[in-house]
Write a structure and sequence with these properties.
mainly alpha, 2 domains, 9 helices
Length: about 220
């Protein structure tokens, strides 16, 4: 709502309100302003739709909440009392469930990418079987065949990851808030998972090359 909160203020019913702080709020897409109840009452606003109540540390919380709910229901049945901790736990539980479900998507994407790269590796080996068989016939070791195919897969994998990371970053910035809060630990965690998925995908992609390198020269040439 504010571009420069420390230099801006809100004018309401002829009164100026100083902005003491700004926070991320999921209610109404963040377009929410909190004002102390005493100040609202002092400017003749007698019917707020939301009131925040804070209990002292020595109060019996559950008993006080039940007493407050009974009082509110007797005053107006349309009003309700919501406990912040209960609502917070419910919302965080829902977010955790959604996040756990979303985290399954990268696993499916990684599996699909690995299958595609393995398929590409098999196709490339079939197309180059004659050349690779000739190399083996003139004295090349099986490791040379694996090395050639691995370098090809590595180039394809690096290009794919570069495009995927760039596109994923852009989509994330579009979906999330304009200025997301990303900590150093979050960046390190993302980089670690990317490196692990890169290593797993690359290891799976060279498996067809390892199997092909163990074949005899006659078997390699017969695939041409």
């Amino acid at each position: 709502m504010f571009e420069e909160p420390q230099n801006q203020s809100i004018r309401f019913l002829g009164h100026n309100f100083r902005i003491s702080g700004v926070c991320l709020d999921p209610i109404n897409n963040g377009n929410v302003t909190y004002v102390p109840l005493q100040i609202l009452e002092s400017i003749s606003v007698g019917a707020p739709n939301v009131a925040l109540v804070q209990f002292s540390s020595s109060a019996a919380r559950e008993a006080e909440v039940n007493r407050l709910r009974a009082y509110v229901e007797s005053f107006n049945p349309d009003f309700t009392v919501l406990e912040l901790d209960e609502e917070l736990n419910r919302q965080t539980g829902f977010i955790s469930f959604v996040w756990s479900s979303v985290m399954l998507v990268p696993l499916f994407v990684l599996a699909a990418a690995s299958l595609c790269l393995v398929g590409y590796s098999v196709l490339a080996i079939n197309e180059q079987s004659q050349e690779l068989g000739i190399l083996r016939a003139v004295g090349a070791k099986p490791f040379t065949v694996v090395k050639i195919v691995s370098l090809q897969n590595l180039l394809v994998l690096l290009a794919s990851y570069a495009a995927g990371v760039a596109l994923g970053t852009i989509i994330t910035l579009i979906i999330l808030v304009s200025e997301p809060v990303v900590t150093t630990s979050t960046v390190l965690e993302i980089v670690s998972w990317l490196l692990v998925s890169f290593a797993v995908t690359f290891a799976l992609s060279i498996y067809p090359a390892v199997r092909f390198s163990r074949k005899s020269v006659i078997e390699m040439m017969s695939k041409a």
